[in-house]
Design goal:
The complex is a heterodimer of chains A (563) and B (319). With 563 residues, chain A is mostly helical. Chain A has 15 helices and no strands. By secondary structure, chain B is α+β, with helices and mostly antiparallel strands. Chain B contains six helices and twelve strands. Chain B has a five-stranded mixed sheet with strand order 3-2-1-5-8, with no helix packed on it. A five-stranded mixed sheet of chain B has the order 4-10-9-6-7, with helices on one face. A two-stranded antiparallel sheet of chain B has the order 11-12. In chain B, a hairpin with a 2-residue loop joins strand 1 and strand 2. In chain B, helix 1 runs antiparallel to helix 2. The interface between A and B is large, with 103 and 91 residues. The complex binds copper (II) ion (CU).
Chain lengths: 563, 319
Amino acid sequence: MSDSTTPAHPERSAPAHPERSRGTAAGTNYLNAQRGIKSWLTTLDHKRIGIMYLVSVLTAFLLGGIFALIIRIKLLFPGHYLITRAQYNELFTLHGAIMIFLFIIPSIPASLGNFFVPMMIGAKDVAFPRLNLMSLYIYWVGAAMALLVILIGGVSTGWTFYAPFSEGPDAGHVILMTVAVFILGFSSILTGLNFIVTIHKLRAPGMTWFKMPLFLWSIYATSLVQILATPVLGITMVLLALDRGFHIGIFDPRYGGDPVLFQHFFWFYSHPAVYIMILPGMGIISELIAVHARRRIFGYTFVAFSSIAIALLGFLVWGHHMFVSGQSVMAGAVFSFLTFFIAIPSGVKVFNWLATLYQGSISLRAPMLYALSFLFLFTIGGLTGIFLGMLSVDVHLHDTYFVVAHFHYVMMGGTVMAFVGGLHHWWPKMTGRMYSEAWARLSAILIFIGFNATFFPQFILGSRGMPRRYYAYLPEFQGLHVFSTFGSWVIGAGFFIMLGYLVYSLKAGAVASTNPWGAASLEWQTATPPPTENFPVQPVAEHGPYDFEEVVAAQAALEGSAS
Amino acid sequence: MAADAATNFVIHLGSFWLPRQGSTLAPQVDRGFDLALYVGVAFFILVVVPLVLFVWKYRRRRAHDVGKPTGHNTAIEIAWTVIPLAIVMACFLVGFRGFLRASVAPAGAYEIQVTAHKWAWHFQYPTGKSTDNELRIPVGRPVKMVMSSQDVIHGFFIPEFRVKEDVVPGSYTSVWFTVPKPTQTLLECTQYCGLGHSGMLAKVIAMPDADFDKWVHQVKLQGSPVAIGRGLYTSKGCSGCHSINGTRIVGPSFKGLWGTTSHLSDGRNLVVDENFVRKHILDPRSLPVTGYPQVMPSFKGQLTDEQINDIIAFLKTVK
Ligand SMILES: [Cu+2]
């Protein structure tokens, strides 16, 4: 590769603000300003809260990932193997519930968002720091309850909790799990609320809406969905628990309820939740592509508004999860139509990113590798959505592995790639250390290959008629299942390597400079790691977030004078 | 009982992606699938080829290079919004048309009642015949499944026929299809329903119309003759007049009846044996038992010879 890997010029960039280029190793920063576990647990610093969220969601990801690996190992064989049916049902339920509610929904907003939203707008903190800490504690309470469910015997409804199965005797600890989800919802609502107010109220002088990095637009859009949709999930969970506990007859036909109503309620949240998951990922991709191709995003305004459009339209398509649930043909038609409509803004974003790469100056560092993975995988995820959006075709594919593959391409190939790319991109700023570029590239490549090996065969399995959530399967499907399981080991290897070099970098990584990528947004214009107050003086947004010429030229000049 | 998925079922492939087309609905669904596949592959190439080209062509050569300033191109932005929109709307229409056709069963479709429960399928035919985990259908005629569940939501999915619909407790849903030629395939449950979910399979057998007619009219319940006889005793209504515990309802109890001597009002004393019973079932008036009203209906034409044999077998056991 022809790009320089680790710039060796410590702590210097934007020379317009010489006071910002103080040394990091000696100076105080948010990490060493206070010490001790108590200082972390009582902190109001959005950066520390972001870090604690980061550790929490990554732990959840590890747990959910281990469950996935066990599921895949079981599926090496069509019949009984390794675990029982009951254990299998619990594992896929927990894999889904943990990945969705404990990992992917809070992942980007609560960790990277918490850390960088205030920094990117040039603020000292979020609007409500106490609320921010509270949302973290609420998350922990919800997570602890979910763990308790695992310890006392699990739950086996699938993450979707469909009634009346979830009200039956063999569903496990449903009430406790719904309470956990209910509680987690509050954490999500509070985070969203905080970001909306922060972005409205705390922008630095000169930081107009259209000078905001696109990550902020996407977080803003996500926050809207979080505060509008999450209450519906909360109410649904309460109703389900009441129906199960007291037979009030909302969803269970035995007591006069309607089980399809549950699906409407559930997807009224859970489809918008798909955008809670993907929009922040799209925001990160805009940053990664702009910074690592050193080019302003093509069609900034479109990309910004499309996030808002996606967030709002996302409320109108929940019924596309229910084409075969017995809803009317008319309803199916309307939901299918709107589903295709909402596909357009997402698709056009991909074209915008491509157009940004055109005539860029593309570095192939790990963050960019993840951004490219995102483009590749998310495109497949989106295009296979066309199959599922078509009413007649969805009838065949619904509830098969095709759907499993589709949403993993979108959620893991999309959101997780963006999250991991963002993690690498901002790792130097957060920790003050550089990760190993060589190892990072290796694991990015492993994850990309492993991902496709795992999930592409699942499209084929699905279209050939393999239903999801099956413990046992027809012998003819074994070949593709085995391939998929091998792929999951490659993904696993990629992530474990990542865990290794990231942890190692904390101890032994090269000290990171203020602005190792030559980025132009505000978070890179302060010390690494940032001081508790983020900026020594109130920053002013003089130029746009993607005006790289000046920043890079200044870096070049400094380097020239140094040598 | 629920079979394990690993035994004796197959889905035959028709192409790389899809099972063979077993119903008249399948070709239309597959055309939709193919359309999505072409559109998908075309867009995929449209994204990935430039992606690879750009990454190669515009790779960073010197550490302090920056990209060219981003321009503006309204024409291209409109084009890449409107053209994909038109294409996906075409997809919508194709999907909608196929769905509409699959939604409305033709008038006069042959109706089969489907009852799903954890973890088996029960099929009831208009003749009163019923089967478990085996669905038989006539070839060349539209058949309609009228479905309901006894417990949780299940999913009725026949991959080779491209039909799927949830089976919901407390309400009825339906699917229909026409199978053009005799075939055997597999029905799967697609809505997660617990421990036996992946074993909730049924064999689907499409038979020539004439064979199906013959089969569906042989109303014979499975099981041992005694068990079948016991079933007929209730299902044919004998139990309304004859007890099996010695109490008198309308007619004499069946308890201990076998082998005794029956006193008829015309003076004859006959042993209750095979011939007696058979004759009494088919023509009760010819053997009037003293002390009882002559109200037992004739079952001529309602019970086959085999079924009478089963009832006899059962009677022998009522002691
Ligand atoms: Cu089922």
